[in-house]
Amino acid sequence: MSNSALPTVNQTPDAQLDLRGTPCPINFVRTKLRLQQMTPGALLEVWLDPGEPIEQVPDSLAMEGYPIEAVEDRTHYFALKVRRPLTSS
Fold first, then answer.
1. Residue 10: is its pLDDT beyond 70?
2. Burial of residue 71 (number of CB atoms within 10 Å: 0-12, 13-18, 19+)
3. 26-37 vs 52-63: helix axis angle to the nearest 10?
4. Less Cβ crowding at N or C end of the chain, within 10 Å?
5. pLDDT surpasses 50 at 63
6. Is the peptide bond before 25 cis (omega within 30 degrees of 0)?
7. Cβ of 1: how many Cβ atoms within 10 Å?
8. Which residues are known catalytic residues?
9. Over 80: is that where the pLDDT of 9 sits?
10. DSSP assigned state of 49
């Protein structure tokens, strides 16, 4: 049976957080707080402005142990997909 080869990982976000217009480091703090409220393994999509927010927030989250799954350029903002780890960091 091949269904045990790889666990199915949900790529559809479990929650979205619109932080467009939110300055650094508040957007990082709000993202981290939202992730801590989610169940382990859940996927959060965060909308961030270009420039400092999309440059700083993913790096800060990665340093805290949150896996970055994707960064998508969506014309006037970026969609960052970050997963809450299965083990608490």
1. no
2. middle
3. 40
4. N
5. yes
6. yes
7. 4
8. 24
9. no
10. -
Contact 57, 29 (CB under 8 A): no
The identity of residue 4, as a single letter, is S
**Host H or E run for residue 31:** helix 26-37
Q: What is the pLDDT of residue 88?
A: 54
Domains of the chain, start order? 12-83 (3.30.110.40)
Query: How do residues 68-77 score in pLDDT, each as one tens digit?
Result: 999 999 999 9
Mean pLDDT of the chain: 90
Query: CB pairs under 8 A, 24+ apart, for 50-55?
Result: 50/76, 50/77, 50/78, 52/24, 53/19, 53/22, 53/23, 53/24, 53/27, 53/78, 54/78, 54/80
End-to-end CA, the chain: 34
The pTM of the full predicted model, rounded to 2 decimals, is 0.86
* 7: Cβ contacts below 8 Å, ≥ 6 apart: none
